[in-house]
Amino acid sequence: MDLKKQLMLKKIKEIFTNTGPKTLIGKNINSVSNINNLNQIFFKSYGNLNKDKIFYVIRRIPTAGFFSNITFILNNLKICEEMKFIPIIDMEYYPSLYNELKIFKNTKNSWEYYFEKLNKYSLNEVYNSKNVYLSPFTFQKEMSIDMTNNRISKYINRLKVKKEILNKINNFSEKNFIKKNKILGVHFRGSTYKTARGHGFPLTIDLMIKNIETLIQNFNYEKIFLVTEEQKYLDALKKKFKNKIIFYNSFRMGQLDSFKIYPRKNHRYHLGEEILIETILLSKCDGLTFIKSNVTSAAILFAKKQIKLHEVYLGLNTRNKFFSKYLWLIKSMLPNYLGGLKYSYKKK
Predict the structure, then answer these.
(1) How far apart are alpha carbons 2 and 9 in whole angstroms?
(2) Helix, strand, or coil here: 99?
(3) Structural domain ending residue among the three candidates 158, 185, 206
(4) Of 107, 135, 158, which residue constitutes the final position of a domain?
(5) One domain for residues 112 and 227
(6) Which pLDDT score, from 0 to 100, does residue 195 have?
(7) How far is 61 from 75, CA to CA, in rounded Å?
(8) Measured between alpha carbons, how far is 9 from 139 in angstroms, rounded to an integer?
(9) In what order do the strands lie in the sheet with 55-58?
(10) How much is the pLDDT for 203?
(11) In the predicted model, what is the mean pLDDT of the chain?
């Protein structure tokens, strides 16, 4: 096949294939295993340690967003419980989007940036042990892609957030979440969500303001905790709702993908820390309005109390990579009667 034809086929494949953010670290899975079929669980014997134990290494390629990875982990923790395996999360040899290039927090395993280890075993020990199963790289058809699914939701309790991160959450909530105030959590996605294939359309600024005003009127919310990655969304809601707005000082920008730039020290780590902090803060709100996502599903699971849910739905973007780049923009400019964006609340 000549080069011109190869390039054409590659371009066609890209149009119909997800090509999301990339890790900072290149593929190095062969340093641990030689895998041919990505959709199977593999057994490996790496050495003679722990002959009486069976380990199960949870790994994912390609990696995805923070809570998508956690949903994948919850599914595999279910396997471990049912099979009596010892779970090991490996985001060192199978790096996530949040891995830094150098050793950070005394580890190369980005899972341990944010969460306590599930057990006492190190990756080095596991990869010198006699009985090791390697998880599939991807979601299998038997797995749930929704972490609130009853089959896997209970495993969220296995995940223990690092104390230093919990301290940041507690300090923020003590200063900003006054008990007498009824707080509406708002997850207002923009940026890449406007073009994400197969994902729910996000609201425009005008629609979000209308949504919040309706909820304040009907449910007497006094404060708004806003989670958004777009600076202009924050600016617009601050201008409209003034001192009602509460927000965590996380990284924000415009249309660009936050993973394609590196504007601060340990940027990839901080992206993960910030969305984890904001998600747990959302779980402390009295109500939550959102387009369904892994972030809001996690907030619901992290919640220690009942949250009033105001899920908004505007339809789904196309799966076609080319048209998905423009469909939200077109619909956001059209009136309702010509197929423009119009939201409704999902019934529970």
Answers:
(1) 11
(2) coil
(3) 158
(4) 158
(5) no
(6) 66
(7) 15
(8) 26
(9) 42-44, 132-134, 55-58, 86-89
(10) 85
(11) 87
CA dihedral 169, 171, 172, 177 (to 10 degrees): 100
Locate tokens 């296995």: which residue?
158
What is the distance between the alpha carbons of residues 193 and 191, in angstroms, rounded to a whole number?
Answer: 6
Q: Check which CATH number belongs to the domain holding 183 and give it.
A: 3.40.50.11350
pLDDT higher than threshold 60 for residue 30: no
Residue with tokens 């090791």: 132
Q: Is 50 exceeded by the pLDDT of residue 273?
A: yes
For tokens 């729910």, what's the residue? 200
Euclidean distance between CA atoms 223 and 263, whole angstroms: 31
> What is the residue range of 295's domain?
163-345
State whether 207 and 146 are in the same domain. Answer: no
pLDDT value, residue 32: 43
Span 33-86, pLDDT tens digits: 433 443 567 899 999 999 999 999 999 998 999 999 999 999 999 999 999 999
Distance CA 288, CA 187 (A): 8
Query: What are the distances in angstroms from CA 78 to CA 52, 74, 82?
Result: 21, 6, 6
What average pLDDT does this structure show over 232-237? 95
Q: Which of 183, 193, 245 is nearest to 215 (CA)?
A: 183
Going by C-alpha positions, the residue among 250, 223, 251 that lies closest to residue 238 is 223
